Amino acid sequence: MNVSKLINININSLKQFNSLRTFTQSAIQLKKKKHVPAIAPLDESELIEQFVRGSGPGGQAVNKTNNAVSLIHTPTGIRVQAHTHRSREANRNQARRVLAERVDYRVNRGHSKLEKMWEKERKKKLVKARKYKKKEAERLVILKQQIQAYSQSSALSTNTESLITEPITIVPPQPIKPASKFPTMSRNSKPFKPKIKTVKSITHPDSTKPTSTNVNKLR
């Protein structure tokens, strides 16, 4: 094979690979979830920030220091307090995030970030509940089919048992023996002997001398 043909084959395979790669990348991009738009940051001039002493578990670093942050939004009058971290900066960031969500919920009612998140969670729960109901319905259908098949097989077996009232015994045919010409003799039986009767004398009126003859008779 020539080198030019090999180069052409490699170029064609690379083109196909690149087209497949772009297609898969576009499909992956389409599958990406739509993110909820971020909330606009609050104006620092509209906030009143205070550092107060916290309470709860955490020892002296929490109970004897002013790590809790209290924020007040002056246009709406919403007040938020954050005291989940030991660090003051972490509490400040958390207080601003919570206050921005609450202000957005009050100002942009119906289109706020919190409502979109709640709607998203609600849809997830609905989809999950529908899948569960579908699986339960399929399981019930399979169970009904199994019960029906079992009932049919049991009814068939009872019908066959009721038809058979007595056990049937099959006797194999016995071979027919050929008839013998002479009667068979057992060990105790005696051999057959014909009896002979003798007549002493027969006198004939014409004859002058008597004659004796033997007559054999069979019983």
TrEMBL record:
Keywords (A to Z) from UniProt: Mitochondrion, Transit peptide
Major location category of this protein: mitochondrion
UniProt cross-references to InterPro entries, sorted A to Z: Mito_Transl_Release_Factor, Pep_chain_release_fac_I, Pep_chain_release_fac_I_sf
A GO MF term: translation release factor activity
Name of this chain's protein: Prokaryotic-type class I peptide chain release factors domain-containing protein
Localization, UniProt: Mitochondrion
Gene Ontology CC entries for this record: mitochondrion
Chain spans, region Disordered: 175-219
Residue stretches making up the Prokaryotic-type class I peptide chain release factors domain: 42-138
Residue spans of biased composition, Polar residues class: 200-219
Taxonomic lineage from the root: Eukaryota, Fungi, Dikarya, Basidiomycota, Pucciniomycotina
BP-aspect Gene Ontology terms: mitochondrial translation
Presence of the UniProt keyword GTP-binding in the record: no
Top-rank taxon, per record: Eukaryota
Xref: SUPFAM superfamilies: Release factor (SSF75620)
Pfam family membership, one: RF-1
Entry's family note: Belongs to the prokaryotic/mitochondrial release factor family.
